Amino acid sequence: MTELLIRGARKAYGATLALRRGDFDLKGGEVHVLIGSNGSGKSTLCKIVAGSVKPDAGEVILNGQPVTIAGPQASRALGIGIFYQELSLSARRTVAENILLPDLPMKGGLFVDRVALASRAARYIAEFDGVSGEGFAADTPVFKLRADQRQLVEIMKTLATEAPILIFDEPTSALDRAQVERFFEILKRLKGEGRAIVFISHRMDEIFAIGDRVTVIRDGETVATSNIAETDVPSVIRQMVGDHDEVVAAPPAAPAVSGDTGTALGVEGLGGSGFSNVSFSVARGEILGFGGLHGQGQSAVLRAIFGAAPRASGAIAVRGEPFAAANPRQAIARGVAYVSGDRGRDGIVQGRPILENVTPVHFLRNRLRIVRPGELQKKAAGPLDALKTKFQTIDHPINSLSGGNQQKVVIARWLIDRPDVLLLDDPTKGIDLQAKSDLFALIRQLAGEGLGIVLYSSEDAELLANADRILVFNSGSVTRELSGEDRTRYNLYHAAYEAA
Amino acid sequence: MTSLSASSQRSGFAAAIERLPFLPALLILVVLIALNGWFEPNSLGFRAVTGLVSTYLALMMLAIAQTYVVMAGDIDLSVGAILSLVNVVVIVLMEQWGGGGLTVLAACFVGILTGLACGLVNGLVVAALRLQAIVATFATSIFFTGLALYVLPVAGTPAPAAFWRTYGGRILEVPFVFWAVAVLALLLVALVRTRLTTLLLAVGDDAQGAFQSGLPVVAIRIKGYVLCGLFAALAALCVTGDTASGDPLVGGKMTLYSVAAVVLGGSALSGGKGTVVGSLVGALIIGLINSLVFFVGTPSEWQNLVQGLAILIALMAGVFVGRRVGQ
Question: Is ipTM over 0.90?
């Protein structure tokens, strides 16, 4: 009987501890659910088994033998098949080629055996007959498929490994009801054959429909493993939340804004790629939080407001005036600021001095063409100091700074000329604790000066501690609003993990 | 429903382009052949076509070489230098070994080994050491050129008659170069069906995904570079047959022509999409543009300018057709 044990697995990325103590055991003939909130370490645990991450400590024991898994190839050789959440498909290859890519049937030692390829792939494609949707065929290139169909291909590819251990990292996120039901039938059959299956999902109903046991991970530590039959949704959520489920210390009530109060940002029926019918308003002086699982449309909404992503419908108003940015340039000119956690892509100007990284928005908003470097330096110094940014001289390249300080420079960019609205898109990704607390102190201060602030954070604790109100996103729409006493971890998780 | 009927209307051509991404290039090729025939009817004669093929067979080979690395999302800026190195190695060996039939074959064999070795070096540097392909192969190109200059410091040593007479001659009344094209076609048909081609394209599509699927990504990329070295060496043999002499710098200019031919042929430089047939057609387009510029009677000082413009136009035409169909 197959048996996989993970004992005390630990993994740190620099100063961040992704996995503190991961314990997990998996037996043949079971579907073992792994659950935990964003960043709790479950993906790291999977990647250790997949061989793409090397643990700093701890051991993996397969069928009684300690093993080291050097990479995806080694993992395959040990009989482990993995469904990757971000998919591992080759877009321009056909469905059949993708299903069997790691193990293409050969003839003559060199050539692809097309006949065997077609017949072997047909077996896995037939598993989803009738639910795979229009346009799904063995010779369709994957880029022509819809998101759910691609996910099916990745499932078929995982099944085609015929491995005794199968790990599915969020395999159902894009599937419809009928596809999920078919998938579960397959899982039940495989379980009957004695295979060991790990299933990761955020949908509670699915977990209870298919799981035999559930292991909860919290803050990089395995909390508990229980039989599904002996537990229920509230107790699983309680295990995910932990003991600290008191009402979160409310941040200071939105300070009174001197002068005119009112809405800083109003959004009505906003729809676009990945979100639909999103409405909310942010008062001046308020910090509105966006919560929920990763990728439920939070970033897409912020980017659409900023003009960086297309918007299909809806109306936006800044300080009561209708506003529709076709591109970030227009948004900046109107006083809308956007800070992304993806500094490399959206934030810093690589390899350029700090000064140049602080001033582009100043140039744009004041239509400056020529400036005196001395004056510019004085203007840049203020916000940098306010953020306690640590740097040697303002002429050093931005890459010489730590991640946290780079992010402070990016934020300082928006502070020379105060914006009306500040959109924060997971702004603390990968920065240290001190920098985080500096940042949030500043954000609160900015709110006090009358800005309307929207904060999306993938860290629930951060959101609970800093947002005055929280909108929980699920599958592209707002499913719940939490304010006042309701802002607890329990409520946040409950809303986020509800079936879509 | 309207979108459905509209899509079925153009689905014939669109589907054809999807299966054969080099169709736009083929159209451009036909137009160029017609233009050549218009300005110089003799250019479509048997002798002229033979001459065109023997001149541009080297570029066709080099474009094929480039295709195999581009498929995997890599690039090889040293193909021209490999060509030069193989050219001088072959010439010097033939001269030293006396230039008889067998020694010529032996020299060609060593030349091909040289090309394979250069490809292996590139593959190791790019895939195993993980250096940026564009810069790493630029560096190896300087290195290979240096080797070529060491082997033969000055251009000019002639090839033995046995070699260039074969290349320029006929077998069973058919010019040798046509036999070479036929063998090449068979080879390419076989290569398209290999697992390696599929894996190269898969790596070019998404290297991370390929790695996570358990594919030996490093080995696959190295094989792409080795295949590239092989075809660069074959290109060198063609150049040696065509020019009948050694020149340590002969290939330098051809490197970027090979990249242009690959792109003209409908391959994506980002990888994952490419056909060797397309690159062949691309190389022919460049050849025909050059001869057209000549036939039109462009004054010599304007030839480069016109040639450059014509290649730009060909590129734009290809992109335009592709986009119209893609919509």
Answer: no
